[in-house]
Design brief:
Elements lengths: L2 H7 L6 E3 L8 H9 L4 E4 L5 H14 L4 E5 L1 H18 L5 E6 L4 H9 L4 E5 L2 H9 L4 E5 L5 E2 L6 H9 L7 E4 L5 H10 L3 E4 L1 H4 L8 H9 L5 E4 L11 E4 L2 H5 L7 E7 L2 E6 L11 E2 L21 H13 L1
Parallel strand pairs: 1-9, 2-3, 3-4, 4-5, 5-6, 6-8, 8-9
Antiparallel strand pairs: 7-11, 10-11, 12-13, 12-14
Helix pairs in contact: 2-3, 3-4, 8-12
């Protein structure tokens, strides 16, 4: 098992990465997770280079520990992604990682490797895991379909882990999807995992930028309240996603794409149409309950809105007791 390598590479106390959840994973969440000895991740989504610079610097002001910066190549597109990476390199230090949702262009991996910036690549298939390894990934996140949000593959977490272990890659494998407590991770560690990535439990934390009503809906949901759909496609086409079943999901495409909410982006208010890929944030107003409520099956064990400290302290105690 390569857990020791994973821990030492990112100077972690606990083999846990916080998922990069667009809009939800801001400076406060990422820095709080990192300060607790896990890898906090700052989500950038479609942010322009100046916002990448600003938020990385703000996060560094709040933590001296390793943290990751999340980019989504298929959403940014090659031009914006290149500019985002250039901005990151400007303020990179020896405790900064890049966390990529999906495979990046080869040129991006080569650029990051040339600056010795560790790369974490999230994948959903064994083939993509092999490609990520060939790109020099410091660790590979294997996302199973139990995960909330957008999905990269069609296998459950355990099956994907075993499929990739069979590839014989000499790189730490981090599992994602359906994990919300130390006991969950201990099981996957016994199967060969070197770490885990969790999103849902952090989305419901006090430090996350999710709307309070969204957090409460996560707390109230169980595994059977989540569903995989492709309905929330406006702004991010071509990816299925796991969400909490709500009226939008139940009525489906019989509904019109009328505006159901309003959110703030860089100080400006924008209408949010039904079927938007945008998650409800603290800056959002309107019909929060009708929006894309990304949530993994792990919500079954998320029963309280808690601080990051409380979540990680319990997780650590469960894997060390």
């Amino acid at each position: 098992m390569l857990e020791a390598l994973f821990l030492s590479t990112f100077e972690l106390k606990t083999p846990l990465i916080q998922a990069g959840m667009g809009g939800v994973s801001g400076v406060e969440l990422a820095s709080s997770v990192s300060n607790m000895g896990c890898l906090g991740v700052l989500a950038q989504y479609k942010n322009p280079p100046e916002e990448v610079l600003r938020t990385i610097r703000e996060t560094r002001d709040k933590t001296s520990n390793f943290f990751g910066v999340n980019f989504i190549p298929e959403v940014s597109g090659p031009f914006l992604l290149d500019k985002q990476i250039e901005a990151l390199i400007q303020c990179a230090d020896n405790k900064l990682a890049v966390v990529l949702y999906g495979l990046p262009p080869k040129s991006i991996a080569e650029k990051l490797n040339s600056f010795s910036i560790p790369i974490i690549i999230q994948v959903g298939t064994p083939k993509d895991a092999e490609t990520a390894s060939s790109m020099g990934a410091a660790c590979i996140v294997l996302q199973g379909i139990e995960a909330g949000g957008h999905l990269l593959g069609a296998q459950c977490t355990e099956d994907l882990l075993h499929s990739v272990l069979d590839c014989g890659l000499d790189v730490p494998l981090v599992v994602a999807g359906g994990i919300s407590c130390g006991g969950d991770y201990l099981y996957y560690r016994s199967q060969g995992a070197s770490g885990c990535m969790c999103g849902t439990m952090f989305a419901a934390s006090y430090e996350s930028n999710a709307h309070p009503k969204y957090k409460q809906l996560i707390v109230e949901a169980g595994t059977n309240d989540t569903i995989i759909t492709s309905l929330f496609h406006i702004g991010w086409e071509g990816r299925i996603h796991r969400v909490i079943k709500n009226e939008t999901v139940t009525l489906g495409n019989s509904q019109s794409t009328t505006f159901i909410a309003e959110s703030e982006v860089f100080g400006k208010r924008y209408p949010v149409p039904r079927f938007s890929a945008a998650a409800p944030l603290k800056q959002t107003s309107g019909s929060i309950e009708l929006m894309a409520l990304y949530c993994g099956e792990s919500c079954e064990n998320v029963k309280l809105i808690e601080t990051v400290d409380q979540i990680i302290e319990r997780f650590y105690s469960e894997i060390t007791s």
